[in-house]
Amino acid sequence: MSFIWSDLSTYSPEKAQKFYSASMGWSFPAATQETLQADYSLCFNGKTPVAGIYPMPEFFRTINMPSFWMSYIQVPSIHATFELAASLGARCELEPAPFDEQSLYALIRDPAGAGFTLYEGPGFLPAAEHTAHSSNCNHELHVDSIEAVRDFYGKLFGWSIIPDPHDSARYHIFESP
């Protein structure tokens, strides 16, 4: 199970687009938006979509949630993964729901409170293009204690969490083959 996508929920998509255009060289072709929700913009690195940007949902506006990036993790069975996450102590924010005609998504918070999206369906990019064109190559989780999440991610995704031999406060997560 791998990270496959990220998108930004923000109060000002227009400002975010200007920022990421200037800082990352991303473009936002209007013609690509026709098949998506009207308020969801794809970010392109050249001709390759690398992320999305959309307006902060109303619920998050009411609680003054700051703008945030959300990571998507592709799973083979969203219902089984969602149930397992709940049994392992996750806070399940949004039960599996249609993402589009072929896909499902669900929102989870791990036992330490970090959020992520489960995704079942075809990937957004072929695996080879992730490495060559996107910035979805390195994800970090900052927690007070690795023990709060070690078993959760190990049991949920089969990931191994290994101490960094050069930094005792840092760990590396390896996906199972």
Overall description:
The chain is α+β, with helices and mostly antiparallel strands. The chain is globular. The protein has helices at 13-24, 58-62, 78-87, 127-133, 150-157; strands at 2-10, 41-45, 48-55, 68-74, 91-98, 104-109, 115-120, 160-164, 167-174. The chain is built from five helices and nine strands; from the N terminus they run βαββαβαβββααββ. The strands form two sheets. A seven-stranded mixed beta sheet has the order 2-3-1-4-7-6-5. A two-stranded antiparallel ribbon has the order 8-9.
Keywords:
alpha+beta; 177 residues; globular; 7-stranded mixed β-sheet; two-stranded antiparallel ribbon; 35% strand
Judged by helices, strands and strand pairing, the structural class is: alpha+beta
Q: What coarse outline follows from CA principal-axis ratios?
A: globular
> What profile does the largest beta sheet have?
7 strands, mixed
Main β-sheet, spatial strand arrangement: 2-3-1-4-7-6-5
Query: What is the succession of H and E elements?
Result: EHEEHEHEEEHHEE
Distance between the termini: 9 Å
Quick synopsis:
With 177 residues, this protein is an alpha+beta fold. 24% of the residues lie in helices and 35% in strands.
